[in-house]
Amino acid sequence: MCSPAFLMFMATVANLALLVLVTFSTPFIQSLYFLRTDLDGGMSFGVFGFCFDLMQVCSGKELGYVHEPEIIGHLTTVFVLYPVAAGFMVLGAITLIPLMCYPREGGFLFVLFAFLSTFAFLATAAAFAVTVYLFTVAMHRLHAEAFTASYGPSIWIALAATALSLVISLNAGCGTCLGGRFGRQPRHLAYTY
């Protein structure tokens, strides 16, 4: 049977992969974007900037980019929470490695992983909420100016990362996937007479 820490490790690595994909969306990976519009011959918006489809030119790779009046510039700095959440997931995965090898010896590591996964969820949820707000407002502004706009794959990847992060933090907090027994007898003492 699989160790509960191994299952959490796999979920943490999967969440890390989702957060890395969101973080390195447009302009790094141009097929991953939050919003695409036909403004200026076609534009795609990501975490670190935006790209013009027609000219194959991208903005500088920076947090807090501005494209007024469609994109609210100061809100794009909140996108820093995606790499922060990925960092918490990396630390959480590192915390789980000793727990996979020695599951009975990691009382402090269980608590540390619970805190790291909770912080990762809070960062991911805050970044996702701002992302949805920012690009929904931008979409409405673009539609008001008679341009087409649609969500891209990054917003759905961010939703999946947020949901998986919630599951991980709830499991770590409740202790169900990390060996919490809720008052039952420990496994190594069960059925010994």
Query: What is the residue-mean pLDDT, rounded to a whole number?
Result: 83
Strand order of the largest sheet: 4-3-2-1-5
Looking at the structure, the CATH topology is: Butyryl-CoA Dehydrogenase, subunit A, domain 3
What characteristic shape results from the CA principal axes?
A: elongated
**What is the annotated CATH architecture?**
Up-down Bundle
What is the helical fraction, as a range of percent? 40-55%
CATH class descriptor name: Mainly Alpha
Tally the structural domains. 1
Q: What percent strand?
A: 5-15%
Report how far apart the termini are. Answer: 24 Å
Give the helices and strands as they follow along the chain: HEEEEHHEH
Number of strands: 5
Structure annotation, total helices: 4
Tell me about the largest β-sheet.
Answer: 5 strands, antiparallel
Low-confidence spans: pLDDT under 50, at least 5 residues?
A: none
Structural class: alpha+beta
| Radius of gyration based on Cα positions | 21 Å
Describe it for me?
By secondary structure, the protein is α+β, with helices and mostly antiparallel strands. It has a single domain (4-174), classed as Butyryl-CoA Dehydrogenase, subunit A, domain 3 (Up-down Bundle), CATH 1.20.140. 52% of the residues lie in helices and 7% in strands. It contains 4 helices and 5 strands. The protein has helices spanning 4-23, 81-101, 107-144, 153-174, and strands spanning 35-37, 43-45, 50-52, 57-58, 149-151. Strands 4-3-2-1-5 form a 5-stranded antiparallel beta sheet. A hairpin with a 5-residue loop joins β1 (35-37) and β2. The longest helix has 38 residues, at 107-144. It is elongated and about 65 Å long. The relative contact order is 0.18. The model has no long low-confidence stretch (mean pLDDT 83).
